Amino acid sequence: MVRSTTIFRVSDGLPLAASVDDETTEKALTEYKQQSKLVFRRLTPNSEPACSIESGDYTLHYLIVGPVIYMCICEGSYPRKLAFSYLDELSKEFSRSYGDKVETATRPYAFMGFDTFISKTTRLYRDSRSLTHGGQAAGPTTQLDQLNENLRDVTRIMTKNMEDLLWRGDSLDRMSHLSTSLRSESAKYRKAARQINIDALIRKWAPVGGIAFFFILFIWWRFF
C-alpha cells in the first residue's frame, strides 16, 4: 500500500504538500524519507520523468509533471502500475487546483490543504487486489472499474536501486541524449552496411561486366 506521499517543486526541491502520516508511519519511514530528500536534491528538469527506486522493504516512486515532482513511498510488494496511477491522479488534481501558484510559492508546504485529496486517493488505492481485479467501490474521481481499465503502462519506467543511486553515483538524468546518439550511430551503421554491400556487388560483378563489355565491343568492331 501507499505509506507516505510528498509533492515537491522541481526547480529548488521546495516541499509543496504532503500526506499527514501518523506517528507509527513516521517512525517506520524516517530513514526512507531522508533518502528521498537526497534523491530530490539530484533531480532536475532533465531527469528521468518517472522512476521507481528500490530500498529495502519499500520502493520510492516519483513522477515529474511540469514544475512538480510527485513522490510516494510504498511497500515493496505494491504494484508499480497502481503507484504510478496514484501519482498520475494526484498530478492532475494538484495541477487543476494549484498549477498557476506553484512557481510563486515561497514557504514550505504552502498547499497543505491538498492533504484531503491525498488521503481520499490513498484510501482508494489501499486495497490493491480490488483495484487490479476491478473492485466496485467509488473513489474521489473515478470508479474502480474505470481505473482498472486505465492503469498506467509502466513497462518502460526505469527502476533503480537506492544504494546504487546514492552511494555509487548512478545518474537519474534522462537518457535521451544517449538514445539520440545510439540512433545516429545506428543510421551510420546502416549507411555503411549498404555501401559495403554495394562495393561487394561491384567487386563480384565488375570482372564479368568488363568481359561482357569487351566481348560486345569486339562483336561490334568485327561485324560492323
Automatic annotation (TrEMBL):
Q: How does it sit in the membrane?
A: Single-pass type IV membrane protein
Q: Name one GO biological process term.
A: protein transport
Instruction: Give the InterPro entries listed for this entry.
Output: Longin-like_dom_sf (IPR011012), Longin_dom (IPR010908), Sec22 (IPR044565), V_SNARE_CC (IPR042855)
Which keywords fit this entry according to its UniProt record? Coiled coil, Endoplasmic reticulum, ER-Golgi transport, Golgi apparatus, Membrane, Protein transport, Transmembrane, Transmembrane helix, Transport
Classification via SUPFAM superfamilies:
SNARE fusion complex, SNARE-like
Record-annotated membrane-spanning stretches: 205-223
Q: Where is the Longin domain?
A: 6-118
- Domain (V-SNARE coiled-coil homology): residue spans on this chain: 143-203
Where is it located?
Endoplasmic reticulum membrane; Golgi apparatus membrane
Q: Which GO terms describe its cellular component?
A: endoplasmic reticulum membrane; Golgi membrane
Q: Sorted alphabetically, which CDD domains does this protein's record hold?
A: Longin, R-SNARE_SEC22
Q: Which Pfam families match?
A: Longin, Synaptobrevin
One Gene Ontology term of the molecular function aspect: SNAP receptor activity
Similarity comment: Belongs to the synaptobrevin family.
PANTHER family, per the entry: VESICLE-TRAFFICKING PROTEIN SEC22B
| Protein known as | Protein transport protein SEC22
Q: Which organism is it from?
A: Cutaneotrichosporon oleaginosum
**What is this organism's lineage?**
Eukaryota, Fungi, Dikarya, Basidiomycota, Agaricomycotina
